[in-house]
Design a protein that fits this description.
Blueprint: E1 3-12, E2 15-25, E3 30-34, H1 41-49, E4 56-61, E5 64-65, H2 71-74, E6 76-80, H3 91-100, H4 110-123, H5 139-152, E7 157-161, H6 169-186, E8 189-194, H7 197-203, E9 206-211, E10 214-219, H8 221-226, H9 231-237, E11 241-248, E12 251-254, E13 257-262, E14 269-275, E15 280-283, E16 290-300, E17 303-310, E18 315-321, E19 332-337, E20 341-344
The protein binds adenosine-5'-diphosphate and magnesium ion.
Magnesium ion binds at residues 41-42, 193.
Keywords: ATP-binding, Nucleotide-binding, Sulfate transport, Translocase, Transport
Family: Belongs to the ABC transporter superfamily.
Organism: Jiella flava
């Protein structure tokens, strides 16, 4: 099922939570809505689900304008971060619940419901746990049951709002891979919300980066990482440092020193140079390099990162050191960027 979101606007008490969002989601795609808290991710998901209705704009499911259709008529399944299963119901009864409450005529027989719930239990890889109660399951198992319950109504679209947010890091990582595999097997159109860039980048076909009720960028994980459309996206996606520089006919100056990088497309004037710790190489050659004094060291998974104080303004950049580079943790060093991003100063 393709979903087309057009100039969507949603206000709460006259304050916009979504401020003109347009997005085309392809059939069978797994797409992540990524952004900081309050950026409008949940609001967008709830509008797609039919749990909220737009102030302006529209949502198409295929060729059909679904903007004002009810949840029931949209055939969507959803899972939330704290998706409470019914405590007094067995796992199988939880999974079959959505089918049992169908209107007469669309409701399968009890035997069919049990059969389908059993199949779903296999699909989410919890065979044999059908008679357990929610309190007898781990957090990860409970979210898988919640997913099976969402799938029971055979939705065309699966909507997940931080489904793994409440779980510990190791379980979350396992479930990510598992959900990706499940998605590939079932071929649903899946939209999932996360504020965790690693989760979004690892799992999805495309990422929608949101900020303040707007879309900053839509792209594959590689596009988002390699060609961030704005300083916001650059800074949100990975570790980054920023330096104030000046562009003059394509050359880039840090104070009075020309740097060994070019900016052919940027207008002359002040600019912001963004760097990632892992894209900087330590060098002995001062020509075009960025020099800085070590101001701190921090340990990160798989690397040590030194903070260099650069220039008279005391701006700082972070440089990831290879494990072999010992004895770099004080004094002055020079670095050269292998990759960088430049944006005109606002
Ligand atoms: P996210 O999921 O990215 O954290 P939300 O979509 O939940 O963001 O919220 C976006 C903005 O809309 C926030 O400023 C939030 O306070 C506001 N908001 C969301 N839901 C409501 C509501 N039901 N009533 C009033 N304000 C809301
Ligand atoms: Mg949210």
């Amino acid at each position: 099922m393709e979903i087309s979101v057009r100039s969507l606007r949603k206000e709460f008490d006259r304050t916009p939570a979504l401020n003109g969002v347009s997005l085309d989601i392809q059939s069978g795609e797994l797409i992540a809505l990524l952004g900081p808290s309050g950026s409008g991710k949940t609001t967008l998901l709830r509008l797609i689900a039919g749990l909220e209705f737009p102030t302006a704009g529209s949502i198409f499911f295929g060729d059909e304008d679904a903007s004002h259709k009810s949840v029931q008529d949209r055939h969507v399944g959803f899972v939330f971060q704290h998706y409470a299963l019914f405590k007094h119901m067995s796992v199988l009864d939880n999974i079959g619940f959505g089918l049992k409450v169908r209107p007469r005529g669309q409701r399968p027989s009890d035997a069919e419901v049990r059969k389908r719930a059993g199949d779903l239990l296999d699909l989410v890889q919890l065979p044999g746990l059908g008679n357990r109660f929610p309190h007898q399951l781990s957090g990860g198992q409970r979210q898988r049951v919640a997913l099976a319950r969402a799938l029971a109504i055979q939705p065309q679209v699966l909507l997940l709002d931080e489904p793994f947010g409440a779980l510990d890091a190791k379980v979350r990582k396992e479930l990510r891979r598992w959900l990706r595999e499940l998605h590939d097997r079932t071929g649903h159109t899946t939209v999932f919300v996360t504020h965790d860039q690693e989760e979004a980048m690892e799992m999805s076909d495309r990422v929608v980066v949101m900020s303040q009720g707007r879309i900053e960028q839509v792209g594959t994980p590689d596009e988002i990482y390699d060609q961030p459309a704005s300083p916001f996206v650059y800074a949100f996606i990975g570790d980054s440092s920023e330096l104030s520089v000046r562009v003059d006919r394509g050359a880039v100056y840090l104070e009075d020193a020309a740097l060994a990088l070019v900016a052919p497309d940027l207008p002359d004037g002040p600019a912001r140079l963004f760097l990632r710790p892992h894209d900087l190489t330590i060098t002995d050659d001062p020509a075009g390099a960025i020099a800085g004094r070590v101001a701190g060291v921090r340990r990160q998974a798989g690397a040590r990162v030194v903070e260099l104080e650069v220039g008279a303004k005391g701006e700082r950049i972070e440089v990831a050191l290879p494990e072999t580079e010992r004895g770099m943790e004080n004094g002055t060093h020079m670095v050269r960027p292998r990759k960088w991003q430049l944006y005109p100063a606002a």
